[in-house]
Design goal:
The protein has two domains: 34 residues; 35 residues. The chain contains three helices and no strands. The longest helix has 27 residues.
């Protein structure tokens, strides 16, 4: 007789410790955030970045511009050696 009472042990889900309310709420919020970010990316691809950015509040635009500017500077910095010569990447 099989004593399997609906556990997912064969799928690697051996967590027998029940989550408390705070941890469960935190995981739900993280999952929600993940889906919002994914949906935002799909919206940018569907409508185009300019259309999406133009609909944002000025504070959000400013934060995104700062983040993109930092990322761009890091990319440019990583493309040159300490003497200012371009680093050749082998493809």
């Amino acid at each position: 007789m099989n004593d399997n009472r609906g556990t997912n042990e064969c799928f690697g889900d051996e967590d027998d410790i029940p989550m408390d309310g705070f941890q469960q709420q935190k995981e739900l919020e993280e999952a929600h955030q993940h889906f919002l970010i994914r949906d935002f990316g799909e919206l940018v691809l569907e409508l185009g970045p300019n259309a999406v950015i133009n609909q944002m509040d000025e504070e959000v635009k400013s934060e995104l511009l700062l983040a993109f500017n930092f990322m761009y500077k890091q990319l440019v910095k990583d493309s040159f050696d300490e003497h200012g010569n371009p680093i050749r990447r082998i493809k």
